[in-house]
Amino acid sequence: MVLFVILVSGWSLSAQEQLNGLWEGVLTRGNLEARDGYRFELYLKVEGARITGRSYLYLEKGKIVEMELSGYIYEDRSVYLKEEEWIPREGITMDPPFLRKFQLLYSRSIWENKLEGYWQELVPQGEVLKTKEYGRIFLKRFTPDKA
Question: Measuring CA to CA, how many Å separate 80 from each of 45, 103, 111?
Fold first, then answer.
C-alpha cells in the first residue's frame, strides 16, 4: 500500500511539472465541433496543485489580448483556469474586459502532451447576458523548431 501511495504521488508531481511552460494551439468560438479558430497560447507555472500564468489570444493584424490567470490541476488531470485580469496593450481596448474560464484535460503520451477542453465567458455576479460566448481549446506543448 505504501508503495502505491509513493508511485501515485510521484506521478502527480510529474504531471504538475509537465504542465509548466508554454502551450500553443487554437481557441474556437461558438461552434463546439469546430477545430479552426484563433491562435491561442497559455504560459503556465505550477506550484503544487495551484496554477498561475498568462493567456495570449492572437487577433487580426498582430493584435494580442493578454490576460493574467490562475487555477488548479486536480488528481484526475483535469485543469480549471480563470482569467483574472486584462493586461493592457497599445491598440487594444476592452470595456469591460472579456474574461473566460477554462475546463481542460491534460493528456500526455510518449508522442505528445495535450491540453484540450472548453471555455466560456465569465459573467459578473448578478448580471445576466442575452448571449454568452463559449468554445473549445486545443493546445499542445510548445516545442521549438529543430532547424
Answer: 14, 5, 24
Looking at domain 2-141, its CATH class is mainly beta
Helix (H, G, I), strand (E, B) or coil at 3: helix
Query: Which residues are within 8 A (CB) of 93 and not within 5 positions of it... i.e. 6 or more apart?
Result: none
Rg (alpha carbons) of the chain, rounded to whole number: 17
What single string gives the DSSP state of each residue in 32-96? Answer: TT----EEEEEEEEEETTEEEEEEEEE-GGG-EEEEEEEEEE-TTSEEEEEEEEEE--TT---SS
State the Cα angle at 108 between 105 and 110, rounded to 5°. 165
What was the pLDDT predicted at 120?
A: 93
Length of the chain counted residue by residue? 147
* Buried/exposed 106-133: b ≥16 CB within 10 Å, e otherwise: beeeeeebbbebbbeebeeeeeeeeeee
Q: Is the pTM of this model over 0.85?
A: no
Q: Where are the domains of the chain?
A: 2-141
Residue 5's φ and ψ, nearest 5 degrees, are: -60, -40
85-113 average pLDDT score:
85
Query: Region 60-77: what's the mean pLDDT?
Result: 92
